[in-house]
Request: fold
Amino acid sequence: MVHTPEFYNRRKGFEFGRKKGEPKTIPGVKVENRIGVQAPAAAVWDVLRDVDAWPSWNPLYVKVSGKMRIGEHLILTRAVPGRSEETLDTTVLDWTPNELLHAKRTLLGGFVTSVCYWEIDVLDEAATVFSNGELFMGMLASWHVRRSRHALRQGYALMGEALKAKVEAEWRGGPGSPTSVEP
Reply:
């Protein structure tokens, strides 16, 4: 099995490193934030899938253009704390309603491939975990991430907190949401 950014198991993700007797895999670094959200996956997805609205609530991605369609470009302007804004020209790899959005880009003349990801894991009918981050793969991945890992992690945490606040506020205000008043 060849391990490339285009081929991965959605449930197992990308494999870094190597198990005894298996072929070499791509060296990589993962920078991630995970946060619990007290709302169903569909409520999280409703906010996540509306990429055009991201700049209105998302402190990390302050400008977005493009469509969430496999093979299409999604241009993201990322404002990582303590760093200059950068424009990410990504290509949508995969998206699944109520589960995930993955987009890739290449850096350093193709020596590094990055996969930005936003994933929703269901814990209960009204509880999820939202993960967002980036996988850096390639021979120069470790070197490229070394200086920005901490700032990226902070940025992903800011996005996670903002998404959590927006989703929970909208879901609590909608039909079928929990209340402290019995009917």
User: Anything to note?
Assistant: The longest strand covers residues 112-124. The chain has one domain: 28-171.
